[in-house]
Design goal:
Layout lengths: L2 H22 L18 H16 L9 E5 L5 H10 L2 E6 L2 H13 L6 E5 L12 E7 L8 H11 E14 L10 H14 L7 H10 L3 E7 L1 H4 L1 H10 L2 H10 L1 H8 L1 H10 L2 E9 L1
Parallel strand pairs: 1-2, 1-4, 2-3, 4-5
Antiparallel strand pairs: 5-7, 6-7
């Protein structure tokens, strides 16, 4: 990861995480609004539903509960604490943001889960744990930040125990073929998203599928949940137009203000079919 990108991502989440938590709570990811995207749900419940739906979709954990979990891109510990409590597991979260790691530790102490969790500032392209350390690697909307996506998936494979599971959920763009490449307008739309949200690039779900297989994973499950999560961005836009949010934006600084002003990039991307929400589950 280039030092410049590393710094941009760190600064973005250092500045914006407190605002997000104040407005939305601990879960820094999409919500799930039913298979057809038509359920009218409380925004925080939709985010919890996403976690549960992803777990249910990815396989049966009733007789094979994970004991050691790695949460890559853990934010302020939303998924980490949820998984630790749900499975009674030991969960380690990594993030590029010291602000997020410290807040996750505070939240773990408040929830009585400090003994079950650990949060570290670390680079997902060089995960600081030995081979075969985890039963489950959970990556919920962090893959889009990875400048070397093959190296990231190789690291996930390396730290998994044999038979361990990867659950990988990430932003994608639409599938492409030689006959249907991205248009100039689509490239421009994506470049604007990259600039605002500190992303190097995104790829299509079929490209991810090939990468995951090339890294040695097996038993792949792949799905596109774009329709189910697309309403999220309109809900975010509505929540940003409040006195509390506007005051928080000015406190957070220009980069966060720019991101808030550009939320329509994502909602429009889903409507056009350019932006996609991809899921992959696989085992080592």
């Amino acid at each position: 990861m280039s030092n410049q990108l590393y710094q941009q991502i760190q600064e973005f989440y250092d500045a914006s995480s407190n605002l997000w938590e104040g407005i939305w709570g601990e879960h820094m990811h999409h919500g799930y609004y039913g298979k057809n995207g038509t359920l009218k749900l409380d925004r925080r419940q939709a985010q919890i539903d996403l976690i549960e739906e992803v777990l249910s979709w990815s396989g049966d954990f009733s007789t094979n509960r994970p004991h050691d979990i790695l949460d890559v891109g853990c934010g302020i510990g939303g998924s980490s604490l949820y998984l630790a409590e749900k499975f009674g597991a030991r969960v380690t979260g990594i993030t590029l943001s010291p602000v997020q790691a410290n807040r996750a530790k505070e939240r773990a102490r408040a929830a009585g889960l400090a003994a079950k969790t650990d949060f570290q500032v670390a680079n997902a392209l060089n995960i600081p744990f030995p081979d075969h350390s985890f039963d489950l690697v959970w990556s919920l909307e962090s893959g889009e930040h990875m400048p070397d996506k093959v190296k990231f998936l190789q690291e996930c494979h390396r730290v998994l125990k044999p038979g361990g599971k990867l659950i990988f959920v990430t932003w994608c763009h639409r599938p492409i073929t030689p006959e249907t490449p991205l248009t100039a307008e689509e490239h421009k739309h994506l470049q604007d998203i990259y600039r605002v949200y500190c992303l190097p690039y995104v790829i299509s779900l079929p490209e991810y599928t090939e990468m995951v297989e090339s890294c040695g994973f097996k038993d792949l499950r792949v799905d596109d949940w774009s329709t189910a999560v697309a309403p999220f961005w309109d809900v975010v836009i509505d929540s940003a137009i409040t006195p509390q949010a506007i005051f928080g934006l000015f406190q957070a600084g220009w980069k966060t203000i720019e991101a808030a002003m550009s939320l329509k990039l994502m909602s429009d991307g889903y409507r056009s079919g350019l932006v996609r929400f991809g899921l992959i589950a696989a085992t080592k």
